[in-house]
Amino acid sequence: PVLVESLLVFIIVLLVHAVVWDRFSWCTVALAVQAFYVQFKWDRLLQVGGAVFQFRGAANSGLLPASMVIPLLGVVMKERCRAAGIVYFERFGIVVASTGMLLALFLSVLAVGITKPVPTNTCILTGIAGSVIIYTMKHSLTVSEVIEVLEVLLIFVYLSMILLYLLPRCFTPGEALLVLGGVSFVLNQLIKRSLNVIEGRGDPIDFFLLVAVVGVVLLGLFFTVLFIFMDSGTWISSMFFHMMTAVLGLGVIMPWLYRLIQRNPLFWLLQFLFQTQTRLYLLVYWTLLAASACGVVFYQNAKRSSESKKHQASTITRKYFHFIVVATYVPGLIYDRQLLYVAAVLCLAVFIFLEYIRYFRIKPFGQTLRHLLSLFLDERDSGPLILTHIYLLLGMSLPVWLFPRSCAPKGTLPGAGALVPYSGVLAVGVGDTIASVFGSTMGEIKWPGTKKTFEGTMTAIFAQIIAVALILIFDSSVNLNSSYAWILASVSLVSLLEAYTTQIDNLLLPLYLQIMLMA
């Protein structure tokens, strides 16, 4: 399975660079080759327990698929913005690609350094790839951009040491690269923009995302340190938790956001949410869907308590939430993407805050949340945190958040790029859901070395093609310009990757589909 997964990633890399070949293509190919070799060193370290931290079991390291995501995103973003003539975001794409390569190279060097005996051939490959990347960065980046890349690397190193120690068995090395690399980049962007505030420059909803992500991460780190010295399960700790959340929110996060958007954040948010009648209808509709999702949770737990044997939610039951998320995102993508952008940020902040309450057992809801959510655990929730629902939200939201709006004339990209915001809906909401449901109920022919079935994968591809046809019918802004063969190839490769990867598919698949569609 690891070899097939690697082959699929190599095919995606080569297809992308067949379209956008430039000096960074050599770097990406070199990085992919050395990541393929280093991945086996990481896998061996995980098997013998020689890794520095405790990583998630029952999965390989995932270094190769994770290493390619950020560099490829930067490359395709650079190409789209260059075609649109937006120099600022073209340079931003170069910085994103360079940062992704350097973070992946750091993880490779770390694995080679702690492997005993030292793997000579892998060291040589890593050295060659590093030389190519550094040489290209030297001739592509300005001094300020090099400093920015190194800042992200420094933040990533310190954040990894802190969070991987505090959260054992929550990530594989590849997932840690994606999640912590993304948080590091967001934190660096927020610091950079806070130090260079120019009134009227920048979209407030972008600042809202940056502040929300950094705010909830800092909140978690603060309470982790605090509850080392006091019991988090008491009423006094609960009062202190909520008081300090209010203090940090109103005393740090709100003033920070005010400095960036130059207006009262609460008034801006209320005005934004209720600006049009369409937004009001969407908010009411989303509230009803949220209530139905809560109803599913309570019903399944009531069913568990009425049965004598231990009850665990089935695959089909867990996919109810995928259907609800699709029903949530599709109207937002069609009618008001900015509202969907902000609503997804708010939902992410709420999800992470509720996870803090569950993890720290904050009264009165901490123990209740532990009981309710334990029903929906699977083998990927082996650490102290329950992250699958957060990954589902991220998988659906990242294509919306990462869509290069400034480089898209009339709010959409030409050709297959028009489907980029729908990447999460197609890959996770439709493809992964249909593959799981049909594969678990009717699948008989298994892919070699996996539990996934041929029938599930083929049904997923077919369902995504139908979904694309429905998007063409209902979203008038989508014009594919006869790029159907590329869309079919993209959907097929990502569906095959779903069958073979052991990483968090909710996070990985939408990003790869977005890369293919943007290319």
TrEMBL record:
Q: Where in the cell is it found?
A: Endoplasmic reticulum membrane
- Please report the organism this UniProt entry assigns to the protein: Origma solitaria
**A biological-process GO annotation:** dolichyl monophosphate biosynthetic process
* MF annotations from Gene Ontology: dolichol kinase activity
Q: Which family does it belong to?
A: Belongs to the polyprenol kinase family.
The annotated topology with respect to the bilayer is: Multi-pass membrane protein
Which UniProt key words apply to this protein? Endoplasmic reticulum, Kinase, Membrane, Transferase, Transmembrane, Transmembrane helix
What is a single cellular component term in the Gene Ontology annotation? Answer: endoplasmic reticulum membrane
Q: Which InterPro entries match?
A: Polypren_kinase
Q: What class of enzyme is it?
A: transferase
Keyword Transferase set for record? yes
Transmembrane spans:
7-37, 57-76, 88-112, 118-137, 149-167, 207-228, 240-258, 278-299, 320-335, 341-361, 382-402, 422-442, 454-474, 486-513
Name of this protein: dolichol kinase
**EC numbers on record:** 2.7.1.108
